[in-house]
Amino acid sequence: MADNTRAWMEELLAEMEERRKHIEAGGGPERIKKQHEAGKMTARERIQYLLDEGTFVELQPFAEPTETELMHGIQAPADGVITGYGKIGGRTVFVFSQDFTVLGGSLGKTHGRKIAHAMDMAVKVGAPVIGLNDSAGARIQEGVDSLSGYGEVFYRNAIYSGVVPQISAILGPCAGGAVYSPAITDFVLMSKGNSYMFITGPEVIKSVTREEVTFEQLGGSEVHTAKSGVAHLECEGDQGVLDTIKQLLVYLPQNAREKPPIIENGDPKNRKTPELLDQVHPDPRRPYNMHQVIETIVDEGKFLELHTNFAKNIIVGFAHLGGQSIGIVANNPRYMAGALDINASDKAARFIRTCDSFNIPILTLVDVTGFLPGVAQEHQGIIRHGAKMLYAYAEATVPKITLITRKSYGGAYLAMNSRDMGADVVLAWPTSAVAVMGAEGAANIIYRKEIQSSPDPAATRQAKINEYKKAFDNPYVAAGRGYIDDVIDPAETRRLLIQHLEMLSTKQEERPYKKHGNIPL
Ligand code: HXC
């Protein structure tokens, strides 16, 4: 190559490097300092921390903002969002990371298009999409173009739902309609104290309703993980969120056509679980620690719980059983005696559908008195919400195993994945009872006249309760009718669950043609 050609080439390379350096500097040292002082990583630091070292490949770094009258002359490196792909634990993921140092990470048309392109690519190759959100919302200077940018993202969030896993990290502001992109995704994780989500901010609320509220009180991580249920997990800072995303991915497949990876571990498949005999009290009125039960059964006692502080009466989360990723849905007798209410139904139904979308077998642990009685629950639509659970279980075609640990009564017996609702295997411990309702309530209703007219109503009532208990308050009537496959020794629980799960690993279930189902929302 002639010297002058080489020199020309080097000039072009130098220009390219100069441009790239400028882009990589984001909003400049002052704004980066501010970002660090707020306890946040920069958009690029987040990507570096999240992905396996040296695997990040950036897409469209030279993208320019859309020209509008108000954007004239404004610089926006990478248009305020870094997009690309890389690996986590050796598996490909696509990622976008909003750069708050560039126009507050606000979303303009190009910014939205870059995210949409990364999502399109993720679906073409069948890889999860991880969004690192830190944005002041719609870029005001771009007007309707910025709304269009959001539209491109929301549309893909919806049509790619159930195609590849979509995970949203909220690491700063997430305001206005912008919250609807994370809300459509499968998992929302928030950093404690540094992130918030709301449709209208404190100022607007004050002017409309006169309510005074801080950002944190309105839409901080505590609010969304405990009260609204919008977010699945609250983690300590950026690192906490990013570490948890890595953990979460271990339970997920790359896309809906694949199964989750089998994770070999040292926990023997035939390990006995005699501890369960001490962990669960046979008296149905004595609460016990369902988390402890779960940890005793699953591989290495590791359980990644979601929605930990929201609707605590039901527990949902991921674990491994014999190396196989499973989703667990369990009543929690420590809260509201494990009764199902509106929030618990929504929480469980959403989780069941997440598992089914991504080929994750579901283990249901049942100890439930029923749906929560009450005027408020009825008026707020427990019928509509409870129906979601029935629908979600029936719709799910993944392997479904149910283990009844103690009570399973009434509508909640059906809603917790009974045989007739499509459970592939139903097991019960000898401590369990399957009936329309508890013996006390049942005796009061069906023997009311007899009790009232008896010379000793209390003694008659107790005798009738005992009679009912003997007849129904045990697992053997249901087992006798084939609603329960087997009554098992709790010490054999893990071994048997793993055997059933392995048997079900080739399960295929076809459903009649439909465009899509119409789950009650
Ligand atoms: C363009 C914006 C911006 C916006 C902030 N900036 N919001 N630029 N569009 N929406 C710029 C600021 O001018 C500033 O630029 C930089 O981002 C950082 O903003 P600060 O205010 O200095 O930061 P901070 O004090 O941390 O406050 C963050 C904030 C606040 C709370 C998010 O910026 C804010 O309230 N912004 C407006 C939020 C909003 O109303 N967004 C529209 C929501 S409606 P310099 O150059 O000084 O660094 C919406 C509709 C979406 O999003 C609809 C989808 C369907």
Automatic annotation (TrEMBL):
Give the residue ranges for region: Disordered: 260-285
List the protein's name.
Methylmalonyl-CoA carboxyltransferase 12S subunit
Return the broad EC class.
transferase
Query: Taking every annotated instance into account, which residue ranges of this chain make up the domain CoA carboxyltransferase N-terminal?
Result: 9-264
Residues forming the CoA carboxyltransferase C-terminal domain are: 268-503
Origin organism of this chain? Answer: Meiothermus hypogaeus
Q: Which SUPFAM superfamilies match?
A: ClpP/crotonase (SSF52096)
Tell me which domain of life the UniProt entry assigns to the organism this sequence originates from: Bacteria
* Classification of source organism: Bacteria, Thermotogati, Deinococcota, Deinococci, Thermales
Q: Which GO terms describe its molecular function?
A: methylmalonyl-CoA carboxytransferase activity
Annotated keywords: Transferase
